[in-house]
């Protein structure tokens, strides 16, 4: 468990500065040399799908500023003629929002240490150990639970028993400090991996937590999803109008289409802002009806506590300060995990030597 926690903590510390490191490694993906009016977001989607055969855009991220690219994620479309999905060399594309040209492309999560793959591979390693299905995701959830229990045990030992962790060289004050630093990140890890299974049910004992759009749709049948009749442009225009009616003044910065549930999602504001996050609106792809919305600064105490977990875990809650906090906590947790591993290995070696000595004497 300490070994897995070391992997999760170290890769998590790097993810706190994902964009900064990834742009340093791959500046051509993010920076453009053109100036002028930006093409409509839906125009970029149409151009990419017409340029890359078999690509169907499911997510788009608006450019963060002038001279920045727009990122689009695609999935393979279904080939009716051959009765199979198209084969794609890349599924993440970076486009110049002025010219509409593709300036970079890569396959998300591809192994391993090339500049274009490193950060995404480490993300998948942090998220799911790169294992298929929900296996790795569940393993990391178990690690998060064990980490939380370890932090609580450290606090109990320090506060109730007045003891630090001398076995790994931690004094009483240091034990308290480290437990307090790690505990909120450990709890947020449970929210990331076991949200519906554990986090929300426990929080709901004190204050109700609303079901997410995915949890709501998970209770429906396929027949309830309808057919896709609205284009990205239709959904974008409808969402813009509905956002204005709600007083959401920021332009749409993220949009996606869920193939599984046949709805569009639109975020008002750029991705990963400081604070609690953006307002989201979800529209049926069949008729444009509002099927859900999320305002991360409104709701019950349980809702607010849950909404705070992602900004906390990603280091985006308070800008650079929170990024640095996650980075430091990740390195501290990695170091403690390694100390535990060394302690256990040394103990195992000592026990083996003691057994061998005993056998030699007898």
TrEMBL record:
Pfam short name (any one): PepSY_TM
Record's keyword annotation contains Membrane: yes
UniProt lineage: Bacteria, Pseudomonadati, Pseudomonadota, Gammaproteobacteria, Cellvibrionales
Transmembrane segments: 135-156, 168-191, 320-342
Protein name, entry field: PepSY-associated TM helix domain-containing protein
InterPro entries: PepSY-ass_TM
The organism's place on the tree of life at top rank: Bacteria
UniProt keyword terms in alphabetical order: Membrane, Transmembrane, Transmembrane helix
